[in-house]
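Much of the work behind modern protein science is quiet bookkeeping, done one molecule at a time. The protein below has been through that process, and both of its lines are reproduced in full.
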Amino acid sequence: MADPLLSGLVEVCVIVGASGDRLKEVCEKHRRERDLPLLDAEILQVHAPPFVTKENSWESQSRINRVQRRRSFIKKKGMPTPAFDAATRSQEGEMQNVSVPTDIDLVALPQLCFPGGLQISYESCEDRFHFLVFTDVLGNRTHGVVIQYYRSVQVGDTVIYSNEQWPSSKGPRLYCPFSICLISKHPYYNALKDCLACLMLQLRARRWMNWERIVKEFAAKLALVPVPPPGQLHLMFSLRPLLIVLPSKEDKEQPVVDLDLHLPFLCFKPRQLLQIITSILTEQRMVLVSSDWAQLTLVAECFMVFIYPLLWQHPFVPILSCQMLDFVMAPTSFLMGCHLHHFEEVATETEELVLINMDDGTVSSSGSESVLIPDIPNVAEECFVQRMDALQLHYDLHVCHLGTSTDINELRSQRRQWQQSLNVKIQKITLELMVNIFREVHDHLNYEHRVFNSEEFLKSRNTADQPFYEKVLETHIFHSFLKDRLSRKMDAFSRMDLGMRQETQRLKVGVEPSRRPTMLEMVQKNSNTEKRLSKRLGVSTPNLREEQSMVFPQRQTSFRKLPLDSAANISPLPVKSFRLPEFPDPLDYHKVQSYYSELISLLGKAISSVSPDNSGLLARYYYLRGLLNTTAGKRLDALSDFQNLYRTDTDIFPNELVRALVDLLPKEEWQLAEKRSEIKRLISRVKKDSEMSQLHRDDSVKKFELPKKHMQLEDFVRHVQESGIVKDVGTIHRLFEALTVGQQKQVDPEVFRVFYTFWKETEAEAQEVHLPAGVIEHLDTSECVYKLSSSIKTSHGVGKIAMTQKRLFLLTEGRPGYVEITKFRDIEISSAPFLLLRIPSLKIKSSSRKEIFEVNLKSECDLWNLMIKEMWAGRKMADIHKDPQYMQQALTNVLLMDAVVGCLQSQKAIFAATKLAYFDRMKPEVPMMVPKTTSETLKHKINPSLDLTSPQAVDVLLYTPGQLSFTDSDGSGNPRLWCALSDGKVVVFDAASWSMQHNSVQVGVSRLNCMLRVDQHQVWIGSQDSVIYIINTRSMSCNKQLTEHRSEVTDFALNETTEKNQTQVYSCSADGIVILWDVSTLQVRRQYRLTCDRLLSIQLIGGTLWCCKSTLAAKGGVVHRRISLPDYLRSVPTAFSCFLLFPETEQLWTGCTDAGELCMWRCSDLTKPAQKIQLQDCAGVNCIIRVKDQVWAGCRGRAGGKAKGKIYVVDSEKHTVEKELAAHTDMVQALCSAEHRYVLSGAASEDGKIAIWKVE
């Protein structure tokens, strides 16, 4: 009945106790002696699925046989089965074969069920629970919940196990403990504890009659219970008298949390809590001790939740029985637990253990030398303690104003809701702790080469925090964490990290050439503790750059005042519960089949009742129904349910399960699958993904190391990128030329070491620069001091020359003061050099002041000459081309010049540095002026390839307007510019400041062809891999896909004029397929097929769908007009590339790939174009858009045999070219309009930039 791919809530139910023979011996001995010995616990019964099979009904199934998946546990010969009825007792003495799941080892289970030993007593005791964790060799964990209960043992002539309700009049009474252990793959500690409580109530109510059968039925029922899918759908089922709730885990990566996370907060004070967390993060050898066995596992599991997303990868044995104490002598890291009785024994016999006493809340060490536990970073500690102090940990205080309900399930529900709410708060607090500890790791990662520069990361830490990081950075747990960060994993850690960053950290406008403190940071560095906390944890005044044309809205500036939800940017989703039907009685094959059918039917009704907008809940229902169909053997229905996850939530798609289902399909089901299109698509996708997964995936982590041998250019590029100095390949090539001047073209490792050391020392020295408040007030908050001269004489006194990214100023000595020399844009240059070479004096003339500033720089004169000229040239280029990246690049060049001169220390050093004067050399090669029309129309340029090693082509652009309904501080309500780059990467800019958002989105790995804003919540993206990806604009996540197309998706058209006000979208693919989608349900409404070689684009105008290849016009799916290339172009290898329709004038405008013209057609006569608009110096038209009464055409221009980007602005009424714009060095291949105020153009990979144009 059960599917081998799946497991229910319970894997095995095991009964442990003393054998009947051994109890008889004890009773006989007790007649002579009064001492009660400790007994050896043994496994008495094992119940494991399948409990029901088609061949054997429940009644006829005397034992379980599952040869393929099970191994056998053989009980000792002569061991009786504890029961009352004579039929069962007659089986005593026979050999019994008990089936056990292959992945569960029961050898140590008897000891763990009785960790303190099995002791017969004269008095009965209350039932007691404790919890177990089992770990296999691969690190996979299973979990156990154990109940210990007592049964009376008669010493007289009666049976060994006596009914407690029938006391015997002969002899004294002894009580023997027994255990029932439920083993599950999922840590449902509270739920399974409640299940066992219900079982004991039932056994006692029936006076232990037929108790073996009752336990078996109990295990069989729990085996029927499915595990809820990840997300906000909990499952409920009834085990009278309790209603059991199975909470779901938040996502696929996080563990189930079904325990009280505040238990450690009740056991330990904040300092001890942080000591324990530090011990875990530094992988110490830890032993938990408590007088209560139950607390050991629960508290240990809490700490595993607290360190998420870091995962403990060493032995994890929260309970050690007395026979297992030798385990604490293991040399490796571990987390184990034992009873308080063994505290002294463990402490004295084993060295260097961290002993965690839960009873008195202390953390100590064993042996003669204490274990050094470093302090957790101070800022993270302060924040954690603040959050912890604000928690309400006592349920009684929460309900003291409420009346008491007489319904036990209502009371339990009330308590459960409080506990779940508290658990969420605690998880946020501990996740925030991990973020505060590790958030700056990403600043020292090189994603391209998967390198972590641990040395530089350590240097960037506060001195007091370095011992902590020195230990953590060497652990397995941190290494695994690094793998996820280098893979850009978007988990809860990444989402909180992004949400907690301040505005200037989330938005980037340029590449930081080197780490320097801004003026604002200098002010904050000297402020009080609270301000330092604010700065480090993500709140301060926005760090605006000079080139930004718009300002950010004001944000809160005190982190302490922010509630946790705001600081973490996480809002809890509403929880929905689904109740399972009553369990079948009896549990035979047909009843169980009916149970699954009823459950599947209930899920079908739930699916039909959910609004299509609630796709998250729909996905959970589909997932759950898919699991049940799998268990019921309905594989095709299961695959259909899992296929629906693509359109509802791909994040929970069970890849391994679906792949296994496909592999297990028998031949007849394969034939049926071929007839169901949605299953056929799924199978095709699974096979493709399986092939991709077989390719080698590099998940290595390398530490940055200086080179040890001479480097050719390729190796040099890699080492420089790994070092984090600079990423741009072109800049690294120039640096290579500088370091190899006058010698063989290879870099000596010693030269590289000196260069790298000089760069880092200069960076470190800049961190120690302290400017007086009187100086700082003259500078912008975003300015940084990048170069500071030695003390020299100037025409304005003695001092040091300081260079920022905007200006030069003199920092006077004696009484520190500020004298502005010039801003770089104000420097005046004549035909003669304004900076005198080879003399110790430097003269600077500025348009902002009359007199010339003269400075005696001595040996530094030549270097400062080069640097100032490069900064001036970069500033001029940035101003003329409206591209702030030129200034950022010039600053990088200047810092590299400084490092090269400091590294070489020879006569050729200055000549070598000239190799890096890129913009100064470009002056005679590149016109310093752009055409007037271009300059007047161009507003700004941005670079979507900031974080990449080389420019990427801008394939698609999409502008989405701002949303007034989004009022959070994360900027969600601002307008956005979406930019599709190579290999499925989507970069998003905040269009209020033209600043790049950190949270770019990866959608597949193929080129993206088209984007469409469907509504304020979603953007659709068509990919070359034939998939339509749907991005949630609020969460910036892509968890929905439409997979109906079989070829690359090339365009979309939005239809908002349907009869029922339902939004619909047309999508087309290159093979001529056009699909009409219902946006609310993501279902296909209609599908057309057009006969053409390649369908490029579509437009919906007045109910007519215009399709571009040989330009087809279709209505109602029937082609009724066809337009062909003009006769004079048929001899040229060209084709239509784009088109526009003006419905009010019935004009059709077209462009061709290899023709420098636009054609205007009359819709009344489509046999030939009515007019041709020639585009001067144009080699082909790639895209056209309509803006007001203008047509903007993005083209490939002709320039000395190289492609050049050209934009032509055509008057749609006069049919004349109004403007010819040239701001791209490669062809323009994407255009979009921003509310008819701006037009944005994107160029191919030689340029890779986006230009923002003003519309007049």
